[in-house]
Design goal:
Blueprint: H1 3-15, H2 19-22, E1 28-33, E2 45-48, E3 65-70, H3 71-77, H4 81-99, H5 104-109
Parallel strand pairs: 1-3
Antiparallel strand pairs: 2-3
Helix pairs in contact: 1-4
């Protein structure tokens, strides 16, 4: 799967999130990269930034938060296109949830492993 095709899947996954939630995404950029960081090569996605739940009156002029979805690690764990679509959806939802302050433990409780 090409990078462009994978980016399209990420866009479709974002489109699947209710508009009421995506309208609340503030100061966040979503990018796709081929490879995860060398220190965690199996990572599928990463949220870096300040979650909405931790922003206060001093939050001003900050660089955008970043949600990164990694193509090659995702492709490596999937058997077919249906698996890729589902894994991208789960990863996008997982990382967007972090933007809203939902931690990994709660996501696992909700079935986003």
């Amino acid at each position: 799967m090409t990078l462009e095709q994978f980016e399209d899947l990420v866009g479709e996954a974002l489109d699947g999130i209710p508009k009421a939630l995506t309208d609340l995404l503030r100061n966040v950029v979503i990018v796709v990269e081929d490879d995860a960081p060398a220190d965690d090569p199996d990572l599928l996605g990463l949220y870096t930034g300040i979650p909405l739940t931790e922003r206060d009156g001093s939050y001003f002029g900050a660089l955008p938060d970043c949600i990164t979805i990694y193509r090659r690690p995702t492709m490596a764990i999937c058997d077919d296109l249906a698996d890729v679509i589902e894994e991208v959806r789960i990863t996008v939802v997982h990382e967007v949830a972090h933007h809203f302050g939902i931690d990994d433990d709660r996501l696992h409780e909700l079935g986003y492993d």
